[in-house]
Every structure is written in structure tokens, then in C-alpha cells.
Design brief:
The protein is an all-alpha fold. It is built from 13 helices and 2 strands.
Length: 360
């Protein structure tokens, strides 16, 4: 099924009008000489089911009902979870201010813009105290980049979003360590793998949307991930911290990040994919840490790889998520229902291909 046919099917199933924003990814780099390598030609079977669509719809309805008055989700990590939940709505093709969930998306954007405005130099953090730190900043920058690339907006909104994104990208560039990674605080003093993944993906999203991102920042970030690769295909927790890691979620995030920047044939990516295949665990019911995070990034990595990797990977993931969804539309596990539900909806929505960052 072609991308156009798949989107037409989804639009009918989800009750959406024909969506004009799919061209965002097509203008990713224009005449940029630093454009990442094109992915190798791969076949990806259409694995979307009616049950999957119903599950993502129920998940979004749950998120709509529990959204806070300021447009936030997420308790003590509001910036991170609000950004992930906002991306979940975008991933199903819902645009700000339009349709059933238009207000939910717009309110989430407004919340993130307010956090950017009230924080120092554009660092996106909840003024009242937020534990998201640079994880949250990365997710928020990605959310704004994805929304900017997809939505129609008036001049005032465009100006606000452009200002916030440019400042957010500058914070990311400033906070990069000499080794090329990022840490928990907006300072170049420490680096850690999962934060690095968040910032690298944010930079890719913003560059997709047409914002200027310095090539040297990207190159150092990808270089950090490559240097973090272990001989068995897994990835270290921290270069500066002396290693550690080797976990499924860290490896999934690193592999997907490198694929997003065209590193499809890199040995670190190929060995990382093999590690993910060998160490695949019970996706939803298993008792392992950061599984919702790991599920999203491993699904992205499998989709980018395409072919048999994708066909072997996604159906089991999809069906387990459908079976484990709660009656209220949520998924439960680590942290809280909004965190898990946002990640679950994003994972199921990877093959929908509405979100530009899923279109690698």
C-alpha cells in the first residue's frame, strides 16, 4: 500500500479530512548539501489493522480527558509527557485548532510555549519545578518542530513558534559536551545516552521543519552515539561516566537516532539491530525497565530497517498493545498512565506516517 493510499485509509478510519501537511518531510533539506543519505530501498508491508486504529483512538480519548487546565500532562515531568502526548495527537493526523482533538493539541503547544517564554534563554522547563530537565527540553523541542512542520498557523503563532524553536536549538547546541553528548542539565558538563537520543531527535525534527541546525552539532552527536557502541551491538549509558548501559532501550534509541540521520549502513546500526532482535523481550507484559520508551524506539528502528525486520517486529508489538489496553483507553506501567499511553499511541502510530520524524 502506498503512502497516499495508507493515509487515505487512515483518514477514513479516523474520521479526518484529507490532510495537506504531508509535504513537510519533502521539503526537509531543500538544496542542503548536508542532506543525510537516502534510506536503502525497502519494502514495508501495510500492517495497520482496524483494532490498532481503535486502540490509538481510545488512547487519545483518554489523554484528552485527563489533560490539565494549562494544557499539560505528566505530574512531576510535565514538559516531557506533555510533549510526548502532543506528538501522539499529531501522529494520528490531528492538527492544532482543527477537529475533535484540535484544542488538545493547541493547548499542549501553548503550554510548551509558555514554559519556553518563562524559562531562561528558551530552556523549556516548568517554572513551578519540573523533573524532565534536558529530557523534557529535547522532547519539547521535537514536539514544536513536528507541529511547526505540520500545521497551518497565523503570523503571530508562527512568530512565537519560530522564536521558541530557535532558542531551544541554541540551548541544545550550547549544552553539548566536548564528547558530543548531552546530560541532564542545560550545561556542557555531563553526557548520557538517553538524553543524547532526545536532543539528536529534536535536532532532526527541527531541521525537517526548515530550521537551521549546525552540521557540526549533528556530526558530534552522531559521533557520540557511534563511540558509545559496545562490541555486542548494545550502547553505553555514558562515555564520560565510564560506560555502563548495554540495555535494550538505550540501544533502540541510539539505533533509531542514527537511522534518522542516514546512517542506515553504519556497522553500529547493523550490529545494534541484531542486538535488538536477539534481546527482544515481552514488549508490554514483561518486567523490564523503560519498556514503553524501548518499545517506541525499537519500533522506529524496525520500521526504518524495513523488509523482514519490520514484518517480524511490528505485528507482535501491535497485538500485545491492543490486548493490554485498559478499559479507559490508557496503558499502565512505569511512571503514570499519561506517560505510558503517550508512548503506546506513538508506537502504534509509527506506520501511519503522519509524523514527519517517522518518515525516515
Amino acid at each position: 500500500m502506498s503512502l497516499f493510499d495508507r493515509r487515505s485509509f487512515l483518514a477514513r478510519s479516523l474520521g479526518l479530512a484529507a490532510l495537506p501537511f504531508a509535504g513537510a518531510a519533502s521539503r526537509v533539506f531543500g538544496e542542503d548539501k548536508d542532506k543525510p543519505a537516502e534510506p536503502p530501498p525497502v519494502e514495508r508491508k501495510n500492517l495497520i489493522t482496524e483494532g490498532q486504529i481503535a486502540a490509538t483512538r481510545k488512547g487519545l480519548e483518554y489523554l484528552r480527558k485527563v489533560q490539565g487546565k494549562k494544557g499539560e500532562w505528566g505530574g512531576s515531568v510535565q514538559v516531557a509527557v506533555t510533549s510526548l502526548a502532543g506528538c501522539a495527537f499529531l501522529a494520528e493526523g490531528h492538527q492544532p485548532g482543527r477537529g475533535k482533538y484540535g484544542n488538545s493539541v493547541q493547548n499542549a503547544i501553548n503550554y510548551i510555549l509558555n514554559c519556553s517564554k518563562s524559562s531562561r534563554k528558551g530552556y523549556i522547563s516548568e517554572p513551578a519545578g519540573d523533573q524532565s530537565r534536558m529530557h523534557g527540553h529535547g522532547f519539547a523541542t521535537m514536539f514544536l518542530g513536528e507541529a511547526y512542520g505540520m500545521m497551518r498557523m497565523d503570523d503571530d503563532t508562527r512568530t512565537k513558534m519560530e522564536s521558541a524553536v530557535k532558542k531551544a536549538v541554541a540551548i541544545i547546541a550550547h549544552s553539548q559536551t566536548q564528547l558530543g553528548g548531552w546530560g541532564y542539565q542545560p550545561e556542557p558538563t555531563y553526557d548520557e545516552g538517553s538524553v543524547t537520543v532526545a536532543e539528536v531527535m529534536a535536532l532532526r525534527s527541527c531541521r525537517n521543519a526548515g530550521f537551521q541546525v549546525e552540521k557540526k552539532v549533528i556530526d558530534k552527536g552522531i559521533g557520540y552515539l557511534k563511540k558509545s557502541a559496545n562490541p555486542d551491538g548494545s550502547f553505553k549509558y555514558s562515555l564520560q561516566g565510564g560506560g555502563g548501559g548495554g540495555t535494550f532501550p538505550l540501544t533502540a534509541g541510539a539505533v533509531a537516532s542514527m537511522q534518522l540521520f542516514g546512517e542506515y549502513e553504519a556497522k553500529e546500526v547493523k550490529k545494534g539491530l541484531e542486538f535488538l532482535k536477539k534481546n527482544r523481550q515481552n514488549q508490554v507484559g514483561g518486567n523490564w525497565g523503560h519498556k514503553f520508551y524501548g518499545n517506541l524506539y525499537s519500533t522506529m528502528a524496525a520500521y526504518y530497517a524495513g523488509g523482514q525486520t519490520w514484518e517480524d517486529w511490528f505485528p507482535t508489538m501491535r497485538d500485545e498493545y491492543i490486548k493490554s489496553q485498559q478499559g479507559d483507553g490508557s496503558w499502565m506501567g512505569e511512571y503514570d498512565g499519561t506517560y505510558c499511553t503517550a508512548f503506546a499511541v506513538l508506537t502504534l502510530a509509527v506506520p501511519y506516517q503522519y509524523l514527519p520524524i517517522f518518515q525516515a
